[in-house]
Please model this.
Amino acid sequence: MNYNRGRGRGRGKPRYTQQYAAGHQSGPSPSTIPIPINKNLSVITVDLELDEAGSQWMSQLRSNWNYIKNSPIVVNMVLRKFEQAANPYEETLRIVYNCPDFKYAKQKSLAIFVIDEFKKWCQRVRSEIIHLLTGDVKLSAFNVVRQQNNFSMMKLVAEVYEMLEDCDIFFDIIQCMIQQKQYKEACQSVALLGLHKKFGINEFLVPLVLQDKTAVVEDFLADSIEHQTELVSFLDSKLGKNTSVRMAWDSYIHEHKIPEIKYDKIHTKPFRKFITRYKKMYNLLDEVTPNLIKKQNEGALQFLLQRRYVKNAIGDESFKEMVHEAVQNDKYLQLELVLLAAQYGDTETALHFALLYGIPKHDWPYNVRMYVDNPNNERHQQQQPANLFEEENWDEPVQQVDYYKLNLPIGNICLVDCHTEFNNFLENNLKHAHIVGIDCEWKPSFGSQKNELALMQIATRDEVFILDVIQLGSGAGAAQLWENLGRYCFNNCDILKLGFGLTSDMSMIGQSLPHTNINQKIGFLDLLNIWRQMEKQNIKLPFEVQSGGPSLSTLVQQCFGAPLNKADQFSNWEKRPLRDSQLVYAALDAYCLIEIYDVLKQCCENTTFNFDEACYHLMTSSNSSLKKSKKGLNKKKTVKPVLKQPPNTDFPVVDASDITFVCDTMLQGLGKLLRKCGISTKILDNTDDHMTCLKIYQDEGRYILTRGQTFSNFYGSVPKGHCFNVIYDDLEDALKSVLEYYKITVRKEHVFSICQACNSNSFLKLSKSTMQTLVRNDKFKMQNPIPAGLEEDDEATGFSSEEEVDDDFYMTAKLPDPPISRKWDLCSDEPVDVGLCRLRNGVKINVQAVPDGVLEKQDMYYVCEMCGKVYWDGTHFERALAGKLQEVVL
Model:
């Protein structure tokens, strides 16, 4: 074959434009070809129109494809077409463009099939046809293929048409895409063509972050270390402003005119989480995010002060260790620590840190200076730190808590911190053990620092061995010892391994000590799981506990009548030498597991609950697999079976505000109920295709809720558990199944915390007077329309802003006492255009939906910043709690 001949009749004329291709679906119409806006960017030099013979051939190809798909007949048909074409590259582009499924091409579509066959054919004859692959053909291919929605097809075409060899010719087109606000498409194209160095973070990366399209951003950043650091550093700079995060971004958004902003994500808490995740993901140094580190340390300081002085849940030594880790060398936080400790009444600790950090005496709090001048008179103040939130009661003595004690001599706690002792432990102390308790300790991390395993406790019935991971090391020198530990203990089916909340411990061991090669299917029992099963069977434990969540301390109290002392839980476990109180605490956490196991088993002896069988099922349930249904031999029609939902064993307990969903078209009622629970949920319209769920999942990471055959179709396209099969028709049962599967905790503060109409959780707080003014102006505009020719912007307008309040505010009207703290983002410092009845972002406030009677009774209103819907406090909250949400809200 000779590919040096002419281009053929009617080929190569620059007739079809990008505009035309965007609107084309079924076939071109020569009489309606528009004039291109920019010839250099949008012209397609390949004639995409089919002549009469080409139309007949295409019709036959479609027919064959519909009946026999990619059979040898269809393959030979397209191969002959390639061989007969004057320019196979142009001919292939013409065929693909005229495929009926071109615009929405799926993986097994005709358009993808043609490109894939052309790729194979090109590999055999490339030397004969490569001269026909000109720059104009590459530009045409790029302009054509970007009109469809499948990025996989874009990657395939880029490979076949060798676009990376001349990637610079696409620069202007991508710039045009950016100008047209096609940020996602521009980002994907740059990543595909390897043009990372040609573009900065502001062209599309920052806009995509503000649009919450982070999956596209992460794909781009995976191949560009420079952009990782630059983007995270820029985002961190917004945390350092004196204003709120929303205000810090305001000028940037308006300057770049970025559309489709996800305002519910532009607040301090979600933004800090986002930056923290990227810092961990790309292993960036603390110097890249100074503002994030400062915010995290401030939060850590507040957290530790709360645990020390309000909850009394951390010991003095542990508090001093951890609070020193939090403030580090930050002079502001050092002084803040001194002031707050003195404010809580702990003048001795305040003085300790004032001297430690060399804070000038004139900056000391008054009570600390008085304490130094006359310590004896002030001595009583530090005996019992004052609680700022409770009044001191002089009539009732302080009750001392009796904590559960270790039932082993101190001498039976063995610290293993050298290789000789480790080897002796492996060879001698595990030989006769049939049951062990396992626990781990690591230094708490309040920021983006990576947690490192510090201790591993292994308890037998007679001794507790504390393996000092830091001293023993995890490198090549200790690799064989850790491998032997995995062989002799973790992977030994003759030893029952007990834990509580084993997932986090096993994950930490696997991360820090990969040589252990743990197989969690061999003899691991999580006591938390067996405890939950016993509760479902109403099996009573020896002691009743009125309060307390599903913690190890609560279980110990139910078994033995006294809780664990968690004063050393928040310790610097990496500091050496370890304190005696730390060693006892670590030993007890592991040893009590064996004692608990004995009590649980004894409580089940005189019941119908088979304890041993339940334990065996929990330890082996991960091995069970779904049985495949047998196909009927005599059935004429084969029906694809609907898959069952795999059990959930991996998801941790989450708050309603920390998980997001997308509901398929058939689950719109469930989606509305989830929104009532304060769970961010996108709901597909009746006209939306089911595949939209997958697109939203890929773009936003939302878990998919669907049912029936659609679930079976999605199964395997997303990780296990990321798509849930709703089997209940009743809305309440469906809601409960979702909440139970994903272990979602819904509290009163979550209810009605997001807009029921648009799913936003960003609200503007308006006073009664402002709302009445808005209603009056709206009624006046209705009665006095604007004369023709005048725009709304020409009206004289006024702005009103309400006083600033905290993000967590209290709703008082008609709500239970005490008031419920709402889990939504409240922005009270945003001005409102009362003349136009609009928010500053241009959204129309729906004041017409506010009844006149409500205007006289309610003092406060909340306006959704995304859709303008107005809310006020009323009986709807109580009705919801007494209705469908009665059994799901804690």
About this structure: The chain has 36 helices and 23 strands. Residues 5-40, 378-396, 623-640, 786-820 have pLDDT under 50 and may be disordered. The longest strand covers residues 435-442. The radius of gyration is 33 Å.
